[in-house]
Design goal:
Layout (H helix, E strand, L loop, with lengths): L2 E5 L2 E4 L4 E8 L7 E7 L6 E7 L4 E4 L7 E6 L4 E6 L8 E8 L8 E2 L3 E6 L1
Parallel strand pairs: 2-11
Antiparallel strand pairs: 1-3, 3-8, 4-5, 4-9, 5-6, 7-8, 9-10, 9-11
């Protein structure tokens, strides 16, 4: 059974940084893409960043380019999201996601970790 467990969320002031982690387990065939998706109250879900795990190709939402960095540790099946220069608009529940298809076509989801940025 595939499990994705996020950690690292919290509260921070605008301009601060947080690093999210996702521990993935329970699968034997490499996930083609892993990523981070966020959803704020009253807003649509937004794909923040994705990484094609075999090639290390990354993609980012325009709203986070230059501020967020997605990375992976294949040996440990871990996924990370380094978030710098955080803004109040970044406040949301952040979900780790993984799948065998294209990024943003995820098959598996974590429970989420809350990120709150105050001004």
């Amino acid at each position: 059974q595939v499990q994705l467990v996020e950690s690292g969320g919290g509260s921070v002031q605008a301009g601060g940084s947080l690093r999210l982690s996702c521990a993935a387990s329970g699968y034997y065939v490499r996930m083609h893409c892993m990523g981070w998706v966020r959803q704020a109250p009253g807003k649509e879900r937004e794909g923040v960043a994705g990484i094609y795990t075999l090639y290390d190709w990354t993609s980012y939402a325009e709203s986070v380019k230059g501020r967020f960095t997605i990375s992976q540790d294949n040996a440990k099946n871990n996924l990370y999201l380094q978030m710098n220069s955080l803004k109040p608009d970044d406040t949301a529940m952040y979900y780790c996601a993984a799948g065998y298809g294209l990024c943003n076509e995820y098959n598996y989801w974590g429970q989420g970790t809350q990120v709150t940025v105050s001004s």
